[in-house]
Design goal:
Layout: H1 2-27, H2 34-42, H3 49-71, H4 80-96, H5 100-112, H6 117-162, H7 171-194, H8 199-216, H9 224-246, H10 257-273, H11 280-291, H12 296-333
Helix pairs in contact: 2-12, 3-4, 3-9, 3-12, 4-5, 4-12, 5-6, 6-8, 6-10, 9-10, 10-11, 11-12
């Protein structure tokens, strides 16, 4: 019960951050620019959301195919349709409570494909690790393609995170973070040793072993090249979807592929720090577009539109998968 309350509190905090960013971003728009913001949304080419819908839906299909590859070294080969259903339902759950989707999609495959959920958690960790690497590569490509545009902005964000009140680099902040992490790890190790006789500790150890088995499955991948190809395809589609989305509003339609890569890189941070990227996605995308000569209100309008398109995709496809999941498996079993 206590853990549930902590999850609820965590969700409310990050949701509050997202709502605050929406409010704060809207207040960044000068009164005389409000008509530009509303006009950008009114005159937007909403038909372009159809190819964005198709592009991002295809990325989710490829993500499902990539996840299947991670299960093969453990001796499991679930059906692609069930894997896709699990992925989309997981995304849908993440809109409500962050990280709930990862647990839910493991539970779904565990139920319908008879795969131990603890082992699947390890494969998701591998997925996340590769996504972080891919995001890092997107940042590198963005820096190479637009260093003169976004290099200064990235340095500014880094300084704001680690500078002291006097404006100097704060070593104290980094030391405190490292000390806290070390103390937590030591405390957990000691606690596990002292409470080793309890059944709950044994259960946790079993889960950790399952996660570890999932993590090391990457060494035994039979299709490493295909796994890397799928990873590249997923992020290429993300970039393509962002680029097409930029053409939807006046003022951003003339931006090239390098601007789309930069926008995706920084907007992805927004998807991480707030539930579903609410507020933060549009804010970071607008800030990057501002560096490309687009006014904040136009960039925020485009970012809001692109975020809403992704939200609708998850909502529509997620609920369709939620409805089809039991029907498909009942029919398949029959």
């Amino acid at each position: 019960m206590k853990i549930k309350w902590l999850s609820v509190i965590q969700y409310l905090i990050f949701l509050g951050i997202g709502i605050f960013l929406v409010w704060w971003s809207l207040h960044q728009i000068p009164d005389e620019k409000w008509e530009d913001f509303k006009g950008s949304l009114k005159t937007a080419n909403y038909w372009l959301m159809i190819p964005v819908f198709l592009i991002l839906s295809l990325s989710h299909v490829i993500r499902s195919m990539r996840w299947k590859i991670l299960m093969k070294p453990m001796g499991y080969s679930p059906g692609l349709i069930n894997v896709f259903f699990a992925v989309m339902i997981g995304y849908l759950a993440n809109l409500a409570i962050p990280r709930l989707g990862e647990v839910l999609r493991c539970t779904i495959l565990s139920r319908y494909e008879k795969i131990p959920a603890d082992k699947l958690i390890g494969t998701i960790l591998v997925e996340r690790a590769f996504d972080v690497i891919c995001l890092g590569l997107v940042f590198v490509i963005a820096f190479i393609g637009q260093y003169d545009v976004i290099g200064g902005y990235a340095i500014q964000l880094f300084r704001e995170a680690f500078e002291s009140g006097s404006g100097h680099f704060s070593v104290q902040k980094i030391v405190i973070i490292l000390l806290v992490l070390t103390a937590v790890i030591i405390a957990l190790v000691i606690l596990f040793k002292k409470l080793n006789h309890l059944s709950i500790v044994s259960a946790i150890r079993k889960i950790i072993r399952g996660i570890w088995e999932g993590l090391i499955s990457i060494r035994n991948l039979q299709q490493k090249g295909l796994f890397l190809l799928y990873s590249a395809a997923i992020w290429a589609l993300y970039i393509g979807g962002t680029w097409v989305g930029l053409w939807a509003t006046t003022g951003t339609a003339g931006l090239g592929l390098p601007a789309a890569i930069s926008a995706l890189a920084f907007a992805s941070i927004g998807m991480i720090i707030t539930p579903g990227g609410i507020g933060a996605y549009a804010f970071f995308l607008a800030k990057v577009l501002e560096k490309n000569g687009v006014s904040f209100e136009i960039g925020f309008a485009n970012g809001t539109l692109q975020w809403f398109a992704q939200f609708i995709i998850i909502l529509i496809v997620g609920f369709i998968c939620l409805g089809l999941l039991p029907w498909y498996n009942k029919k398949h079993a029959a």
